[in-house]
Amino acid sequence: MARTSRRTEHKPGRKPLTRAMLLPLPVSQVRALSLENHLTLAAMRSGHGSTEVAMNLLRVLYLSYFMRDAADDERDLEVFREAEAALARCRIRANRHLGWTLPEEDQRVLEQILALHDGQLASLPSHRYTGAWERLQRFLRSDDWSPIGSGGPDEDEEQKC
């Protein structure tokens, strides 16, 4: 009887994952990313927001969205949609020369995203972060409004500002 190899087969055209890719990101990198993300939200909270600060929060939102587990259902997408809407409202206020501000409710939803992302960075294999980063780059090159569900500019968001 022929012995079968314990090696796992991989899909053609796809590189096998290395040991480093299967491990979480190094703790020092996780801390640095987390600190940067939380300082970005703190800047927005304290009235020192800008287009760059808002884009950094949007980057965290989309990376977190791309890193979520496939088992997450439609209910779990709501927090991502709420955070995206909060950042859209922030941009609208800034465009109206009302400053880069975040009401308490919008701060809370963005805090949820940052907490989720902190957990993802600390526990998921590093290849998930790399894959999410690649998906983010593809999205940025696309003409899509949002990678989240049926995302896009919500006309009602202007009404809320």
Describe the structure in your own words.
It is a single chain. This protein is an all-alpha fold and 161 residues long. The chain is built from seven helices and no strands. It is globular. The chain starts with 18 loop residues before the first helix and ends with a helix.
In whole angstroms, the N-to-C terminal distance is 72 Å
Number of continuous helical runs: 7
Mean pLDDT: 85
How much β-strand is present in the residues? under 5%
Please write the string of helix (H) and strand (E) elements. Answer: HHHHHHH
Supply the helix-strand structural class.
mainly alpha
Based on CA atoms alone, the radius of gyration comes out at 19 Å
Residue share in helix:
55-70%
Low-pLDDT stretches are: 151-161
Shape: globular
The major sheet is characterized as: none
The total of beta strands comes to 0
